[in-house]
Every structure is written in C-alpha cells, then in structure tokens.
Amino acid sequence: MTYGEKILNYYRSLALPQNLPEGVEVLFPFAEEEVSGILEAFYTKYFSDNGRRTFLIGINPGRFGGGATGIPFTDPIRLLEELGIPNSFDPKQELSSRFIYQMINAIGGPEIFYKNFYFTSVSPLGFVKDGRNLNYYDIPALQQALEAYIVDEMRKQLAFGANPVAFSLGMGKNIEYIKKLNAKYQLFEEIIPLPHPRWVMQYRLKRLDEFIGEYVDKLRPQIKQ
Asked: What are the boundaries of the signal sequence (predicted)?
C-alpha cells in the first residue's frame, strides 16, 4: 500500500470528535463527493510511493483552506493554479495557503516538497463558532475535550511513515501544546517551531522573503530525495 493509499483510507474512516463545548461546530469536508475526488487526485499524484515524510503540524484547518478543499493549507485557488486540480469551490484565498505555496515553490515545487513532507494539524478537523474560525486552543474546554482524539488521530498518521523530527507551524500556543503532548505521549524525537504562515502574512508581510527563507533553511535538511 502506498503512502497516498494509507492517507486516503485514513480520511475515509476519520471520525468526528465528541463532547465538544456548546456552540462549537466541526468542519468536515470529507463527506462531500467533490472533496473525495480531490483527495484521490492529490494523494495519488504526490504520494504514490512508500517513502517516509517529515510532518509539518498546523493548528487546525480553516474554513477557506483545508476545511473546504480537504487538503491542508491548500485553498481552492492554489488547488487549481499550483496543483492543477480543477474544482468548483468558491475561489476564496486563505492567507496561510498563499504563504505555503510560495514556500513550496522556493523549495523546488510541489513534487519535491510532497515527496518529503506531509501536512497535518494538531486536530485533523477544523472548528467554527458563530461563523468564525476557531483554534483548538481558543476555548480551554475544547482543548481539554480534544486531547484523547488528537493523540489517537496523530498516532494513526504516524503509522503512514514519519521521520523522528517534526515541525510546528506556530511558535506560540501551538508549539507549546505540541511539546506538552509530546512529553506525555512520545510522538516525535524533536519538534522544531516555525512562524505560523497566517501570522507572517497578516503582521509581517514586508518580511515575507525573510520568513520563506527561514522555512527553506530549516526544512531543506529534511529533503532526502
């Protein structure tokens, strides 16, 4: 079974987290027929081998990126323009996706990148409350309710074939929480923080090239092929 087939099987059986705080809704695009076809096209194209990947761990999918397309950090625009996968989604952009694909191209393009790296998130599913994106750590009761789910889903993904070093996309609350989980459950040997793409695009746009360079410098040693 290829890496891509393992991922596809994972998403086909992905369950919803339970006992969430009142008002918290889950983004679950994987039940949609178009998303299933997009996942099949993407993971067959870029993950049709058995090589191990270095995990890049985001927070949780947003409603305009992975929460819509099913592909982490990939909005409908990048899905078509960068990956060549047509789609009928509303062509809204996600700031994180803009950053990520500029970085991917700086490393050498999607084929080289996805042969060596795998995007996931602390929670594989995103959340909204009152129509707005919600991070898993924004509500303490949500973070607490999700812990067992997060660890279980991460272990399932590690079984695809993961390198011992991982990266956190987020240098604040995300890396703090991942390191806490890692100390408790020994998921990775080392987790290296990187600035969150949205933070760069929203607050440090004038230094975009600098931050893309930081990503490239830190990720390039993980490229084996």
From this structure: none
Q: Are 73 and 65 in contact (CB under 8 A)?
A: yes
List the end-to-end C-alpha distance of the chain, in Å, as a whole number: 20
Cα separation of 123 and 107, whole Å? 26
In a domain, 173, yes or no: no
Per the DSSP assignment, residues forming a β-bridge with 58 are: 121
What is the signed CA dihedral for 46, 48, 49, 52, rounded to 10 degrees?
50
- Domain region containing 102: 3-14+23-166+179-222
pLDDT band for position 225 (cuts 50, 70, 90): low
CATH number at residue 112: 3.40.470.10
The predicted model gives 100-108 an average pLDDT of 97
Per-residue CA distances from 52 to 49, 97, 116, 142, 160 (Å): 9, 23, 7, 32, 8
Q: Is the pLDDT of residue 159 over 70?
A: yes
User: From CA 93, how far away is CA 141, in angstroms rounded?
Assistant: 30
Opening angle at CA 3, ends 127 and 68, nearest 5: 25
**Domain total of the chain:** 1
Q: Do residues 60 and 126 lie in contact, with contact meaning Cβ atoms separated by under 8 Å?
A: yes
pTM: 0.95
pLDDT for the residue 64:
72
In a domain, 172, yes or no: no
Q: What is the pLDDT of residue 68?
A: 86
* Chain segment 173-197, per-residue pLDDT in tens: 999 999 999 999 999 999 999 999 9
